[in-house]
Structures are given as structure tokens and as C-alpha cells.
Design a protein that fits this description.
The protein folds into 3 domains: about 15-190, Up-down Bundle (Growth Hormone, Chain: A); about 210-260, no CATH class; about 260-475, Growth Hormone, Chain: A (Up-down Bundle). The chain is built from 20 helices and no strands. It has helices at about 10-35, 40-45, 50-55, 55-80, 80-100, 105-130, 140-165, 170-175, 175-190, 200-205, 210-225, 235-255, 265, 270-300, 305-310, 315-330, 335-360, 360-390, 395-425, 435-480. It is globular, with a radius of gyration of 22 Å.
């Protein structure tokens, strides 16, 4: 590492805009975490079974997953600040509808609407960083967004529990209204105005409506398959088949589109392609910790519910503490190398989680989390900085949406696939498995997670190597000409 000149300061409007982006990320993260803790209360209050009440969370996640790339493209076409502002307004309105919903069905519909608004928050916050801070501070800004996302994950359960106890389940949704409106005010004050929107005829040509529709249906089929209440059954495999067919149709549509939603050439960019794959893999591993930890901590270690929640908050709290410092490190060192280092830390952490709890119990588990979680934050800051710094300005929205999509697909896949690995390793029904069976499940599942991270390291290194060769070939052609 060499000494570098001081980075240029962020302007006062830029600071307001960056706080607005961070608050947008926090609000979208709270939209997931704060609702989870309300599910038992909702099941009783609205007289619905547990399998049904999960749709309060699933409707939100499905809407985000289906819409995130299309919303990013819409931001590129209409103006990213304009679309983010609209998303925040929609999120606030839908949150109010959730709090006022008189029935379970209307609550689920309002949550889906809330998810559409959250898609804009998740897709466009990363895309607007380059318009908010100097390029030399991009890594720190990305780290701040990662920090606020982690704070939302950590804060949601405790905040939700307090709100339910004090004011009932409706309060967990109503509290999101002022958060979204505050972010909207900061965005409007701090970010430069969006350019005039594209004329309607050009907009219709540029949005690639056929590609957007095919991708949305494909993602919906995949997400529904992965969230089947009893695992992959005949219907689930049928939905996976439809998703596979949808991918084929989508690629064919994009090849023929005059202005494709996702340019096929972009997917051949080795840095972007490897970054998206690794983003999916790390989200899969992070979801593994959320799936496995409650059972291990309660069944094997015998912790009560309050202590389980406290231990599980260690990862998000650590993420919140390390996000900005690691982002600053990314600004000073090659982002690609830092991404590989983050993957290496995650592989080490997953390995420790597979080995140490058998010897040291809770301290062993926490030791693995202490290594894995900063690795996740380092990779996120470095990967987002590397990709968003290289993408053309007119593609930042859709590229940010693709990063968000890869993360969401990793979370959905991690819950389904790694949950199945855990159940199989534990001998079947985890809820009734004994302490030794759950401990065995933890070892095998995190060994699998470590293997995924090693695969991610290979993918990232191959991406760097291929990008270097492509750059050398381009320079050679330029020299000859």
C-alpha cells in the first residue's frame, strides 16, 4: 500500500444526498427484517396458518426480485433521481396501506406494492453513488451503504418487537412511512436533478418491454419454485422448468431487441459476469448463516430465544462497524484484489464455522462469524466499486439492478438449497432433530459454504485474468492502428 493524496471533500449537498441514499438502503432493509418478527402476531390477529402468513415476507421479496432490473433500466431512461424519488413515494404509500390493511389478502397486496417501491431503492442507490461523491470516495460510500443495510437487518427484529408490544402489529409498517419520506426529502435536496425524461416514443423503444416481461415471469417462476413451503415438489420442478425455458426465451429476445434490457455483450464482460456470479454465491452463504444458526444455537447449545436473537445480531452489528473502514480500504487498494480478499475471508470464516463449534461451542461459532462477516462487507464494497466505476453512465441503473438481482437470487437460493443440505445432513426434520444431528448438519452445510467461496475465488481470479487479456488485446489493436 502506498501513500495517496487526500481525497477531495464531499460537498454539503453531496453529504445530504449520500445520507439520503444510505437511509433509502436502511429503509428497504427494514422492510424485510422488521416484518419477520411480526409473523406470529399476524397469524393470530388475521387468523391465517403459518404457511400462509409467510406471504407477508415472500410478497415483498418476490416483488423486489421480479422488478429490480427493470426499475434500474427505467432509472437510466427517465432519470435515476426521479425514479428513486417515485420509488420512495410508492414505498411510503404502500407502508401506510400495510398499516391500514383490514384483511390478510389486502396486506399481502400492499406488501407486494411496497416491494415494487423497494426495488427502486435497492436498484438505484448504488447507481447514484457516482453522481453523489468524488470517484476517490466511491469505496467508502459503498461501505456506508453496506453498513446501513446491515443496521437495518440488525435493528429490524428488536424494533419490530418493541413496536408490536407498544402499539400492535400495524406499527411495524407505519414506522416505515417517515423513514421513506425523510430519505425522499434528503434525495430531493442533495442529489442533482434528473435530466428531462426521454420522449414517449423513444422511451417505449428504449425500455425493451418484451424483454422486461419475459425476465419478470422467469424470475417469478424461479422464486416461486425456491419458496415452495415443503421444498421442491412436482410443482416446484415444473416452475424450475418454466424458469429454464424463460431464460432461453429471454436471451433470444435480447439478441433481437434494438435496445435490450440486458445487453448480451455486457454478460460477456469478464469482470461484470464474475462479479455477478460471486455476488450470488456470497448471498447464498450469508443466507446459510440465517438458516442454520437458529437451530444450532437453540437445539445444540440450548440457548433460549432471547439469547439466540442476541447471538444472531453479532453478524449484522459487526457488518455495521466494519463497512465504512473497509470501504475506505477499497479506495486505497485495488478493488479487484480486495474483492478476492473478501472472498478468501468468507471461505476462511465458513471453514471455521464448520470446524470450531464442535470443539469450542458458542465461542467457536462466534469466531467464524467474526471472520466471515467482515469478508462479506469487504467483498460487497470492492465488487460494487469495481463494477459501478467501470460501467457507462447510461447503464448504471440497470447494472446496479443486476447486482441487486444476483444478491436476491442468492438469498432465495441459499434459503432453499442450503436449507435442504442442512436438513439432509441433520437426518430430515430439523425442527425435531437432536443436538448431535443439528451439529452434524452445521458442519456439512458450512463445509459446503466454504466450497462455494473457494469456487467464487476461482471465478473472480478468472474474471481478472480474462479482463487483463481483453485489455491487452485492445491496446495491441489500438497500437497497430
Amino acid at each position: 500500500m502506498t501513500d495517496m493524496p487526500a481525497s477531495p471533500p464531499i460537498s454539503a449537498p453531496g453529504r445530504a444526498g449520500l445520507i439520503g441514499l444510505a437511509l433509502s438502503m436502511l429503509t428497504a432493509s427494514l422492510g424485510v427484517s422488521i416484518a419477520n418478527v411480526a409473523l406470529p402476531t399476524l397469524a393470530l390477529a388475521l387468523h391465517v396458518p403459518f404457511q400462509a402468513v409467510q406471504w407477508v415476507v415472500l410478497a415483498y421479496l418476490l416483488a423486489v426480485t421480479v422488478a429490480i432490473v427493470g426499475v434500474g433500466r427505467l432509472g437510466d431512461a427517465l432519470g435515476r433521481r426521479r425514479v428513486l424519488s417515485a420509488g420512495l413515494g410508492l414505498f411510503a404509500l404502500a407502508s401506510a396501506f400495510c398499516g391500514l390493511a383490514p384483511s390478510f389478502e389486502l396486506l399481502v397486496a400492499a406488501r407486494a406494492l411496497q416491494g415494487l417501491g423497494a426495488a427502486a431503492l435497492m436498484a438505484l442507490t448504488l447507481a447514484l453513488v457516482r453522481e453523489t461523491v468524488p470517484a476517490e470516495r466511491t469505496g467508502a460510500a459503498m461501505g456506508l451503504l453496506g453498513t446501513t443495510s446491515a443496521i437495518g437487518t440488525a435493528l429490524g427484529p428488536s424494533m419490530g418487537g418493541l413496536l408490536i408490544a407498544a402499539a400492535g402489529w400495524r406499527a411495524v409498517f407505519v414506522v416505515l412511512v417517515p423513514a421513506a419520506l425523510a430519505a425522499l426529502l434528503l434525495i430531493r435536496r442533495g442529489l442533482p436533478a434528473s435530466p428531462a425524461p426521454t420522449p414517449a416514443t423513444t422511451l417505449r423503444q428504449g425500455l425493451d418491454l418484451p424483454g422486461t416481461l419475459v425476465l419478470a415471469l422467469t424470475l417469478a417462476a424461479y422464486a416461486l419454485a425456491m419458496t415452495r413451503p415443503h421444498g421442491l415438489d412436482a410443482i416446484g420442478f415444473g416452475l424450475l422448468g418454466l424458469a429454464g425455458l424463460g431464460v432461453t426465451i429471454f436471451l433470444a429476445v435480447e439478441q433481437r431487441a434494438g435496445s435490450p434490457l440486458i445487453r448480451p455483450a455486457a454478460l460477456r464482460d469478464p469482470l461484470l459476469a464474475s462479479g455477478l456470479i460471486c455476488n450470488l454465491l456470497i448471498a447464498t452463504v450469508i443466507m446459510t448463516t440465517l438458516v442454520v444458526a437458529p437451530f444450532y444455537l437453540s437445539h445444540t447449545l440450548g440457548l433460549d430465544t432471547a439469547l439466540v436473537g442476541l447471538v444472531m445480531s453479532a453478524g449484522p452489528v459487526l457488518s455495521a462497524l466494519t463497512g465504512v473502514p473497509l470501504g475506505r480500504l477499497v479506495d486505497r487498494v485495488d478493488a479487484g484484489l480486495m474483492a478476492v480478499a473478501g472472498l478468501g475471508a468468507m471461505a476462511t470464516g465458513a471453514t471455521l464455522l464448520a470446524l470450531l463449534p464442535a470443539w469450542f461451542g458458542l465461542p467457536g461459532y462466534l469466531a467464524g462469524i467474526v471472520v466471515l462477516t467482515p469478508g462479506y462487507q469487504l467483498f460487497q464494497a470492492a465488487n460494487n466499486t469495481q463494477i459501478m466505476s467501470a460501467v457507462p453512465a447510461d447503464r448504471r441503473g440497470v447494472t446496479s439492478g443486476m447486482l441487486g438481482l444476483a444478491r436476491n437470487l442468492g438469498l432465495v437460493t441459499g434459503a432453499a438449497v442450503m436449507g435442504a443440505v442442512f436438513a439432509a445432513a441433520a437426518g430430515g426434520d430439523v425442527a425435531t432433530a437432536g443436538a448431535d444431528a443439528v451439529a452434524r448438519g452445521l458442519r456439512i452445510t458450512f463445509a459446503t459454504a466454504a466450497a462455494l467461496m473457494l469456487a467464487g475465488i476461482v471465478v473472480a481470479l478468472l474474471g481478472r485474468m480474462m479482463a487483463g487479456r481483453r485489455a491487452s488485446a485492445l491496446r495491441s489493436r489500438q497500437d497497430r492502428s
